[in-house]
Specification:
Layout (H helix, E strand, L loop, with lengths): L1 H40 L6 H12 L4 E8 L4 E6 L4 H4 L12 E10 L2 E11 L1 H35 L21 H9 L1
Antiparallel strand pairs: 1-2, 1-4, 3-4
Helix pairs in contact: 1-2, 1-4
Length: about 190
């Protein structure tokens, strides 16, 4: 039982640690991107092509579904990734795009006198739910293997010790202690 509880604890602990790690890594990535985009936003007209290239690289084959850079008034400068409208992505109309597995991160693009704009990232956390399910399946298989090994141990023990009384059965704490062990009787008769 202790081993099965340990397996359950391992599974739950793994899942609890995973979510804060994802959040921290995503925020760190967003800060790094804003540091790269900030010099391109300092001019009167932001360099849309270079910002677009950064966003394309960010969303190419990753868990980032889409990314967008907005100026300080909230006007879109560049966007990359899935073509789902922000209004739909944020479910402002009550319709949730892509289920409940998306996470939005908005990071300000810092300037000397305040924010120059904002970076918005949409993370796909559905794969994390899938991986958590795989961890649960592995934990269940581990439990099954522990129960199976316990059953095999009981069957082997009963098979190997069937009909034989051993010295441990002569313990004064057992009710059968007064009965002699058959092996001793046979060796006494031979002498």
């Amino acid at each position: 039982m202790a081993l099965m509880q340990g397996a359950s604890w391992f599974s739950q602990n793994h899942q609890r640690q995973r979510n804060p790690q994802l959040e921290e890594l995503a925020r760190t990535l967003a800060r790094q991107v804003t540091l790269n985009v900030a010099p391109l936003m300092r001019t009167d007209s932001p360099d849309e092509k270079r910002i677009q290239a950064i966003l394309d690289q960010l969303t190419d084959e990753s868990r980032i579904l889409d990314a967008g850079v907005y100026d300080e008034q909230g006007d879109l400068i560049a966007r990359s990734g899935e073509s789902v409208e922000v209004r739909d992505r944020l479910a402002l109309d009550g319709k949730k795009a892509g289920g409940y597995f998306n996470q939005q991160i908005v990071e300000p693009i810092a300037g000397k006198n305040g924010p120059l704009g904002y970076l918005r990232l949409t993370l796909d956390t559905h794969t994390l739910a899938t991986e958590a399910q795989q961890v649960d399946n592995t934990t269940n298989i581990l439990r099954l293997m522990l129960l199976l090994s316990l059953a095999i141990g009981v069957v082997l023990t009963r098979t190997l010790l069937q009909g034989k009384r051993t010295r441990w059965q002569q313990s004064p704490f057992l009710l059968t202690a007064s009965k002699p062990v058959p092996e001793e009787e046979e060796s006494e008769k031979k002498e």
